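INFO batch 0412 | record 1 of 1 | parsing
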Amino acid sequence: MPDTATDVRAPQATYRGRADGAARAFLGIPYAAPPLGPLRFRPPQPAPRGGVVDATRFGHAPVQTPPPETSFSILREEQSYGEDCLNLNLWTPAADTARRPVVVHLFGGGFGYGSANVGHLDGAAFAAANDVVLIRPNVRTGALGFLHLADHFPELDQTNRSMLDLAAALRWTRENVAAFGGDPDNITLAGLSSGAFTAAALFGTRDGPALFDKCWLMSGYATRILPPEQARRITEDFLGRAGIAPGDMTALEALSVEDILRLQAEVVAVNLAERSSPGGRTLGIVLDGTSLDRHPELAMRQGATRHIPLVIGRTRHEAQDVPLAAE
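INFO prediction complete | emitting tokens
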């Protein structure tokens, strides 16, 4: 009998989704508490449990200044942006007991922008055509996700908040995806560009490799990890421009979203090559010793990926405005 129920009862909560072509969509599911106020620069906290969650529409994408459109830009739809962005979108052919493979895909965007709500991929069509459960989480980007504040605010000792957001989304997936027809023991983590760098960084964390079963990294590897001193220079520039003294949490929390976006644009290099070069002015994964225990390349050499099938690839025309006909 076809699955026609509107609600799916999962361990975390009951989720109310909607039909989407040949699949069912559960959109804007909160996998962590809103990172607002005193939680703004802190690791993700647990989402409330129980109740009925309306999952019929997209939640906020992370706050950002979208880059200029080019021929390779993602397909943009009208969407809202906000700090309350720790949500995920899920598409499934049916919320049954089929135990389908699960794909968790993290968007790219140079660590400063991107969204799980838009893109070239039709989530419903992909899930239906491949008989898989597709999950796309939104995570914090830019300074909210990566600014290294530990040296100036000791209570903010975990820098890689965006990476921790991804880990929280994967924990939600392990616990709840069986209710949506997915197999919690067959999760493939896929990342694009900065999403791939973030996914690869999980290999250097204590429990990251236990959160998924397979991994696909596209145009991002375990190599681009910032040393604390490089990240510290970016933070000092950011705080100096903001007029915030070290330890002044009140001033830090009082920054408007507009000020944060302006300041991060001022301290990060505009040129992609400069951002990507050693010592470049960029935001990204920091080897902070707390959220990231060891360099992921070292973790791989020590066997962290031994049990995880891993695919690594790159695009032919990375970040180049090349017409598709040129292929």
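INFO post-check: Residues 1-5 have pLDDT under 50 and may be disordered.
INFO record closed
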